[in-house]
């Protein structure tokens, strides 16, 4: 440990290394682009290390880093005008189409419902962990999750109705 390196900074660096894949998956679940996800994680790592001295409770460092990744991803998405999905050529076209369809559907949700649904169903976070990452009351997370799911169900029903009319 260098003379200037703090306990918090060392902890943040260790978490960034040991949980890189987790942070990448969180970033990817927002942007659906491997290169953008790597950029988000890099930018988030820079911010986390730079501001590690502001970390009040070291035991929540992982949650704090996740929040930085989410905020960085949201900022990047809001700054981009056109989203272009890269197809995974190792899986059949139909599966790519289904993944893009579901991602577009979830992307239609407003924040924080989008984050909650993505963290719960794409990243398998527990509701308590989502509550910590997003700094929300657990009951608020639950109500926003169920509201988001109702919106997705309604959107799916509307899309099915439109497709059946076109057949």
TrEMBL record:
Residues 18-81 form the RNA polymerase sigma-70 region domain. Residues 103-152 form the RNA polymerase sigma factor 70 region 4 type domain. The keyword Glycoprotein does not apply. Keywords: Sigma factor, Transcription, Transcription regulation. Pfam families: Sigma70_r2, Sigma70_r4_2. The lineage of its organism: Bacteria, Bacillati, Bacillota, Clostridia, Lachnospirales. One of its GO terms (biological process) is DNA-templated transcription initiation. This is RNA polymerase, sigma-24 subunit, ECF subfamily.
């Amino acid at each position: 440990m260098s003379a200037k390196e703090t306990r918090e900074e060392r902890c943040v660096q260790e978490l960034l290394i040991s949980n890189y894949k987790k942070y990448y998956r969180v970033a990817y679940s927002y942007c659906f682009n491997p290169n953008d996800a790597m950029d988000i994680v890099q930018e988030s790592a820079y911010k986390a290390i730079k501001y590690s001295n502001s970390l009040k409770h070291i035991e929540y460092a992982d949650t704090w880093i996740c929040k930085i990744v989410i905020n960085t991803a949201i900022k990047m998405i809001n700054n981009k005008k056109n989203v272009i999905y890269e197809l995974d050529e190792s899986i059949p076209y139909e599966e790519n189409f289904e993944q893009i369809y579901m991602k577009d559907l979830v992307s239609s949700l407003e924040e924080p419902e989008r984050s909650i649904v993505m963290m719960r169903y794409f990243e398998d976070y527990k509701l308590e962990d989502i509550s910590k990452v997003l700094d929300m009351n657990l009951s608020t997370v639950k109500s926003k999750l169920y509201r988001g799911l109702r919106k997705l169900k309604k959107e799916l029903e509307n899309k099915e109705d439109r497709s059946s009319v076109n057949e």
